[in-house]
Each structure stands twice: as structure tokens, then as C-alpha cells.
């Protein structure tokens, strides 16, 4: 299943939330950094690791065909088992206009015949070269938003635009970062007119581990942010699966991984 995360404006924490979710995902998953403004995970969580492979390299290789095969070799492990992997984003945003999002979306929608989910960080909705094709193919499209009046207003407008462009209102959902500032999930869901899948608390210390590679303490995996991420990830899998099964008949066999190793892994 392909799950697209995006934001209206501001920096509500799409990348941080996406990484937190990928590290907490209950099945095999790839975090694909598709933000046309550039990837952040290697520089942040990866502590400045030299970008090897990644989206730009994949795009070049795919011009000779065989995108699905090339994808496999461009992924980096986020955990020891390789159940969670990363497609690093663009180091140079100028490349974004050369990326064939449509071709990429097709491949990301069925990685390993659907045995591997993809959480795609698509960045800001109105950005130039926004990966609209990826949003269009996604089983769930999640608007990540803050809970201030300003954020919710921008989010409401963004959802209306998404509806207009895409029409598949059922796949839209909200994810609140920092609820209660002042609005809660229920009020935000009503304002957006979509289901709110859950929320991730403000947890600056744990967020800094994910966004900037701050040292992860012993209790990182049990932090408020990672605990909430596990809940949200499980709900998101359910939500996306329910919508995908409405679009496509269920596969003959389902490959479900049961391990959930959270927090300890670093980008290798
Ligand atoms: N749950 C959270 N609690 C506290 N701080 C957070 C949380 N999520 C993200 N942040 C912080 O917010 C800042 C922006 O996060 P992030 O880069 O993930 O946002 P973004 O929406 O991806 O931004 P951009 O549009 O620039 O890509 C970072 O400093 C990050 O540590
Ligand atoms: Mg980001």
C-alpha cells in the first residue's frame, strides 16, 4: 500500500512524523522521501551521512527502464533486519523537475507485489513539482497539520483543493501534530471534513532525534512520540487497507510481517 503524507504550509512535522511512523510500522515498509524541496532524513536522523543512491540516482537509472528493480538497490536500511528502509530524497531540489512522478508512483504502489508498504513524504501541497501522481495513486492521503487556528484553516483549504483535484475524498485523512493548541482531533476532523487518524504529541526531545539526529536516550522507544506513532501507524494501515480493498480485489495471499522493532536503528 502506498500512503502519502503532505502538509498545507508551515512545517508541521511531515518528515519527522513520517520517519516516526516508518520506525513504528507494523509491517515491512519503505519511507520514500519525495518532497520536491529535498530530502532531510540523511542529513538529520542519518547525521549527515553522504547521500548514496536515493531518488536522484534512481531517476537516472530508471531512464534505462526497470525502475522496480533499481528501487531495491537504492534503499537504505533503517533497522538491522531491513524491515524498514529508506529511499533518500533529493539532495538538490533542482532535480525535482526531472523526476517522473507518474512512473515512480506506479512502482511505489506495489513494492514487492504489495508485501511492502510505502510511506511517502510528499512535502507541501502547493510546492512546485509536487508529486501529485503519487497522491493520486495512494491508498491513503494524510494531511499533517498543527492544531492552531492558523494551521487548521490552512489545512481546511488544502483538503478542499485536494478534493477538487483528485475527487477521491474517501482516501483523505488528517494527522495532528501537537493537538490541543487549542483544537483537538474531533474539532479538527470536523473542520477538515475528513477522518483524523490520530495525533502525535509535541515531544521536542524525541522529535529532535528524528529530525536532527540528536542522541537517542535509552527511553527513546518508549517516548510519548514513539508510543503515539505506533498507535497511528497501526490505524493508518487499517485505514489504507480498507480503502485499497474498495479499489482493488484483495490479493490471493497476504504477506504480513509481525515484528515491530522500534527506535534502536540508525540509518546504515
Ligand atoms: N511531534 C513533534 N514534537 C515536537 N517537535 C516536532 C514534532 N514533529 C516535528 N517537530 C519539529 O518541527 C520541526 C520541523 O519538522 P519537519 O522537518 O519534520 O517538518 P516538515 O513539515 O517536514 O517541514 P518541511 O516542509 O520544511 O519539510 C523540526 O525541528 C522537528 O524537530
Ligand atoms: Mg519535510
Amino acid at each position: 500500500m502506498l500512503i502519502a503524507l503532505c502538509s498545507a504550509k508551515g512545517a508541521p512535522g511531515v518528515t519527522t512524523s513520517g520517519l516516526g511512523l516508518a520506525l513504528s510500522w507494523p509491517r515491512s515498509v519503505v519511507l520514500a522521501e519525495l518532497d520536491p524541496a529535498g530530502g532531510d532524513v540523511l542529513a538529520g536522523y542519518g547525521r549527515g551521512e553522504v547521500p548514496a543512491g536515493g531518488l536522484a540516482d534512481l531517476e537516472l537509472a530508471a531512464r534505462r527502464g526497470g525502475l522496480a528493480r533499481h528501487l531495491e538497490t537504492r534503499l537504505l536500511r533503517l533497522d538491522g533486519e531491513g524491515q524498514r528502509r529508506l529511499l533518500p530524497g533529493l539532495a538538490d531540489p533542482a532535480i525535482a523537475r526531472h523526476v517522473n512522478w507518474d512512473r515512480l508512483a506506479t512502482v511505489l504502489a506495489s513494492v514487492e507485489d504489495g508485501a511492502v508498504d510505502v510511506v511517502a513524504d510528499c512535502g507541501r501541497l502547493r510546492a512546485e513539482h509536487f508529486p501529485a501522481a503519487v497522491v493520486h495513486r495512494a491508498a491513503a492521503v494524510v494531511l499533517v497539520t498543527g492544531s492552531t487556528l492558523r494551521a487548521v484553516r490552512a489545512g481546511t483549504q488544502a483538503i478542499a483543493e485536494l478534493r477538487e483535484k483528485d475527487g477521491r475524498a474517501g482516501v483523505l485523512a488528517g494527522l495532528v501534530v501537537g493537538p490541543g493548541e487549542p483544537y483537538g482531533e474531533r474539532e479538527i476532523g470536523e473542520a477538515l471534513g475528513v477522518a483524523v487518524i490520530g495525533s502525535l504529541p509535541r515531544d521536542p526531545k524525541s522529535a529532535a532525534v528524528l529530525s536532527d539526529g540528536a542522541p537517542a536516550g535509552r527511553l527513546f522507544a518508549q517516548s510519548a512520540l514513539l508510543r503515539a506513532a505506533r498507535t497511528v501507524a497501526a490505524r493508518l494501515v487499517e485505514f489504507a487497507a480498507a480503502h485499497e480493498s474498495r479499489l482493488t480485489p484483495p490479493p490471493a495471499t497476504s504477506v504480513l510481517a509481525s515484528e515491530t522493532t522500534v527506535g534502536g536503528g540508525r540509518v546504515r
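The longest helix spans residues 224-247. Strands lie at 2-7, 29-33, 76-77, 84-87, 117-124, 140-145, 172-177, 195-200.
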